[in-house]
Amino acid sequence: MEKITRKTVMPGVTLLCLQTNKFKTGYFSVSLKRQLCAENAARDSIIPQVLKRGCRSYPDMESLSTALDELYGAIVEPIVRQRGEILCTGFCSSFVDGKYLPGGEKTLEKTIALVAELLLDPATRDGLLRAEYVNSEKENLCDEIRSRVNDKRIYASGRLREIMCAGENYGTYAYGTIETAEKINYVTLTKYYKESLAESEIFMFYCGSAEPGRVELAVREAFATLPRSDVFCETGIEVRTNAAEPKYVTEEMDVSQGNLAIGFRMGKVMYLPNYAAMTVFNTIYGGGVTSKLFTNVREKLSLCYYASSSIDAHKGIMTVSSGIDPAKYDEALAEILAQLDACRNGDISQKEFESAKSYVAASLRSYNDSADTMDDFYLGQEIKGLKCDLDEYAALVELVTIEDVIEIAGSVELDTVYFLKNRGETV
Known about the structure:
alpha+beta; 15 helices; 23% strand
């Protein structure tokens, strides 16, 4: 039996509890919701990494590791998740359910208390975050940002976003830039951290066997010192329903294959989004091994090494990622767009349609098998303002019609085509 409850446990703090006996472990996460922007992305993403280095009771990694071992190998990890133009940072934790331990030890309360102390009472010196921790994590952050270029597929997708959404927060990399990361210092980061803690709306998620009332009590006690502002930072997602004149950008780098990244605006359907229909449309178009992009562009015509599409339903953007031979650029691009036209024209077989719906519904229901995927799902639902659970959402998918899919496809508009090719190669 599963039970989902939502409750505002203190100003600006939502606690969602999913009570289930499916797992022998418990899961708890806390996420601060921040507006993604170029100025603050690096600072927002580094804060949980710095906080994880130690707290008042356990001021270093060694003592913290010992504390986790004493909690029967509990795990606490920093998290950085982007949903549209909202950046969610904080901690997630997993721990053995106390009812399976001798004496029913209260691992739930102890783990939540540890997470709260890491977030609210970090290791400091003279009231400031420790300089050595901040400097070390700043180096790690810069390495993370630099490493993007090592995976050319990810790099091309990132460049597409930067170009397509120039002037929009969505064009900002979740971890910021080298320039903003290098400006971080322990004094200004301490001030920013304290402001973020007070001004951010917070989403907490619990999954496990404990009664919601018990979880709420543990949260209220552990987070009793959480500072709350009278006014919280506004977060929002700018959805542009109309694409500009399509942009075509080609860049060169030392690459073994061409990387084609295409960006689309979802268009007028974002006025009243049918998220279930978007998911089915994406699966038909390019979201799996039975999709039109895979079966036609890759398998039948051999125009690419891979081709897939994905939709950020929060932002209303669809992207296609493909690896191609630069000599086949025009042909591959034309065929990728032709497959979108096929969806617009209703050239979708009943088998394609039913297969896509079954795949999406089954995938959604499989999220129930993992606490962290359920956390991701419900965080997304919270940001979208939706209240349905996984089974209800899967049921909505099964109600999607071909006409719904055609409407979604007909609304999609090409915005930007980005191509990364090897130096000196001709297209």
